[in-house]
Specification:
Structural class: alpha/beta
Order of helices and strands: HHHEHEHHEHEHEHHEEHE
Strand content: 5-15%
CATH superfamily: Vaccinia Virus protein VP39
Largest sheet: 8 strands, mixed
Low-confidence stretches: none
Radius of gyration: 17 Å
CATH class: Alpha Beta
Number of strands: 8
Distance between the termini: 30 Å
Mean pLDDT: 90
Number of helices: 11
Length: 273
């Protein structure tokens, strides 16, 4: 099993401002968050009652998508913006299908680094490691991932509920440029797994939630279906294409979640030819 950034001195955790991973943790019922995160999470919940369903739906989508690509033969996974561990996590899903699967998690929140030991409990046959890195630092993140993954072979790249925290501007995050750099680094046969908040399905609630995020110091960029589709240009979409997150190859639990109400999140999985 490869090493991880758990050996490095832990970065300082900033508890003065909310972090998306910790806000998400609160929505999922976790305990690894601070009052500032809970405050923002509650404010957003007050204007958008779908966020708890959305958090659950994103986790469920990740599990179904990972199982799908693992059953298709993928044995390497790079999960960027992994967040705070919530079982079953990606490595557990992948290694249940194929115990030899190798998984690298990457996130920029120090509290995730603190929880990395939980992530490292993978199968004996495979490998599970963690890189403390920011999605915007493509070269560093890929270099750290390459310590465990072979990028000459197919990799599943997962960015679930991450892209809406990144802007489109060329002199800013340049999220489309970032995604292209990651996809360009992948071998043919690799897969891209994405979900993204959209204003299409509930514009008023999503607009209010976005404003609360921004006031809390977290940029937030919901995207239309057309904007989401841009991430998959040049790739082969898996059926059923780009649709609301709970509808992507749903299982009975997901059908029940759909019945609870709309979740304004799109999801999709695509293959690099």
């Amino acid at each position: 099993m490869a090493g991880s950034d758990t050996d490095a001195p832990p970065p300082r955790i900033d508890t003065s401002r909310p972090h998306p991973a910790r806000v998400y943790d609160w929505w999922l019922g976790g305990k690894d968050n601070y009052p500032v995160d809970e405050e923002l999470a509650r404010r957003i919940l007050a204007v958008d009652g779908s966020v708890l369903r959305g958090a659950r739906a994103n986790r469920r989508f990740m599990q179904r998508a990972v199982r799908t690509v693992a059953e298709a033969g993928i044995r390497q996974f790079l999960d960027i913006g992994t967040g705070i561990p919530t079982e079953p996590n990606l490595h557990q899903v992948a290694q249940q299908v194929a115990p030899e699967s190798r998984v690298v998690y990457a996130d920029n929140d120090p509290i995730v680094l603190r929880q990395a030991q939980a992530l490292l409990r993978g199968s004996a046959e495979g490998g599970t490691t963690y890189a403390h890195a920011d999605v915007r630092d493509v070269d560093t993140l890929l270099a750290r991932a390459a310590e465990s993954l072979d990028f000459t072979r197919p990799v599943a790249l997962s960015l679930v509920a991450l892209t809406h925290y990144l802007d489109d501007e060329p002199d800013g995050d340049d999220v489309y440029g970032l995604l292209k750099r990651y996809v360009d680094a992948l071998a043919p046969g690799s897969h891209l797994i994405l979900s993204q908040v959209t204003p299409d399905l509930n514009p008023e609630a999503v607009g209010k939630a976005a404003e609360h995020f921004r006031r809390g110091g977290t940029p937030f960029h919901p995207r239309s279906l057309a904007g989401f589709a841009r991430f998959f240009e040049g790739l082969e979409l898996l059926g059923p294409g780009l649709i609301p997150v709970s509808g992507w190859r749903p299982e009975p639990q997901d059908v029940a979640l759909q019945a609870e109400g709309i979740v304004p999140v799109y999801a999709g999985v695509a293959r690099k030819a």
